[in-house]
Amino acid sequence: MWGYQRRLARDLERWSKAGWVSAETADMIRADVARTPGLSLPGVLAMLASILLGFAVMSFVAAHWEEIPRLARLGLLFALLWTGYLAAAFFEARDMRIFRDAAIVAALAVFGATIMLISQMFHIDGNPPDGILMWWIGALGAGVILRSNPALAFAMVLVCVWSGVWMSERSGTHWPFLIGWVLVTAAFAWQRWWPGAHLSALALAGFVVSLGYTLTQGHAHVVPVVAGLSCALLAAAVEKRHDMVSDSARILIIYASAAAFAGLLALQFIEHTSARELAGLAAATLLLLLALIWHGLESRNRGALWLGYVAFSIEIFALYVKTVGTLLDTSLFFLIAGLILAGLAAFAWRLHKRQLHEVTA
Predict the structure, then answer these.
(1) What is the mean pLDDT of residues 89-118?
(2) pLDDT computed for residue 41 by the predictor
(3) Bigger pLDDT: 33 or 179?
(4) Is the pLDDT of residue 328 over 60?
(5) Contacts for 140-146 with beta carbons within 8 Å, 24 or more apart?
(6) What is the rounded distance in angstroms from the CA atom of residue 180 to the CA atom of residue 159?
(7) Distances in Å between the alpha carbon of 273 and those of 79, 270, 282, 315?
(8) What is the distance between the alpha carbons of residues 202 and 225, in angstroms, rounded to a whole number?
(9) Exposure of 308 by Cβ count < 10 A (0-12 exposed, 13-18 middle, 19+ buried)?
(10) Which of 59-63, 131-135, 284-288 is least confident?
(11) d(CA 88, CA 288)
């Protein structure tokens, strides 16, 4: 939000000087953007404060747990839980949504501590992921009922933790993760919260990448490659044809490409590959990344563009570390890489000039 406001302020100033926007209209646009809820310094600080307060409460209660009578323990836990929700109601009545969401997240942190401490108090030797399951279901319910986006984001994080803990205790794929992912993603869509779309895409990309390490004894890295490339190509095909899904398609291209790149890295540098296989995979990876950069430039998808740049750099560096002195001489390696990047820079410059000509024409 900060970056958007800065860019908009510069654009409004330029448009006003050009006579395209009146001073009164520019002021109205600035006022409207200022009222739009988004990421802000007070919101970030309030959310961090709620997390720290939640951990402080959990640490204090856990440290003095044995000294507190059992009935008082239950009363304390539920009092802390409802204090968070009452604080959220207090801030809601005063139209302070940033602090309301922070209070809800703090209450959810206490809810998780309540599950764990009650299990300890009654000596319930259950499955740890089951406690996290109850936690993310509670967070999802709070996010939906109270229409709190940070609570839904917290639920998605807990779904990922739930799946991660399960897989750390067992070998195999945690397919129930997809149920939690679908439920939280549906809540994001219901709220029409675009940062949630990024979080959902990131979580799903991480799950797809994990399939390479959990299927076929950890040698299924071709799965995220195929799945990522298929999704990215499908999203690119519908991006310009359907306005209703164009924003979702742009997001999908970024994270699907990231999953495919992670699978390609594993195939090249984790699996045992011959020199010929490595050369083929490296060439294919570099070509795909160049295609991603080209698409980012052509469609003005900054996320895809920066992913392509970063991934290209990672690929080049990883190849240098693995192949220098074996497949390629050092100077020859840098010569080839430099020529590729020089050609890419020339192509990007020509594309940029063409876009400027289209805008000014």
Answers:
(1) 85
(2) 59
(3) 179
(4) no
(5) 140/183, 140/184, 140/187, 142/104, 142/107, 142/108, 143/104, 143/187, 144/187, 144/190, 146/88, 146/104
(6) 6
(7) 59, 9, 11, 16
(8) 15
(9) buried
(10) 59-63
(11) 48
Residue ranges per structural domain of the chain: 1-6+20-125, 223-361
Question: What band does 203 get if pLDDT is binned at 50, 70 and 90?
Answer: very high
DSSP 3-state of 258:
helix
Q: How far apart are CA 309 and CA 344, in angstroms?
A: 11
Dihedral, 230, 234, 239, 243 alpha carbons, nearest 10: -140
Q: Which amino acid is at 53?
A: L
Distance spanning both ends of the chain, measured CA to CA: 31
DSSP 147: T
pLDDT at 16: 79
Instruction: Tell me if 255 sits within 8 A of 202, measured CB to CB.
Output: yes
d(CA 166, CA 240): 40
Residue type, 54: G
β-bridge partners, 112: none
229 contacts: CB under 8 Å, gap ≥ 6? 256, 260, 288
Distance of alpha carbon 220 from the chain centroid:
23
The model's pTM is 0.78
Query: 173 with 217: CB under 8 angstroms?
Result: no
Which tokens hold the place of 331? 């100077």
The phi-psi region of residue 44 (left if phi > 0; otherwise alpha if psi is between -120 and 50; otherwise beta) is: alpha
Rounded Cα gap, residues 183 and 289, in angstroms: 33
pLDDT score of 303: 86
How confident is the model at residue 256, as a pLDDT? 94
Q: How confident is the model at residue 37 (pLDDT cuts 50, 70, 90)?
A: low
What ranges in the chain are assigned the alpha helix state H? 2-18, 23-35, 41-63, 70-93, 97-121, 128-145, 149-169, 177-191, 194-214, 222-239, 246-269, 275-299, 302-323, 330-360
DSSP 74-142: HHHHHHHHHHHHHHHHHHHHTT-HHHHHHHHHHHHHHHHHHHHHHHHHTT----HHHHHHHHHHHHHHH
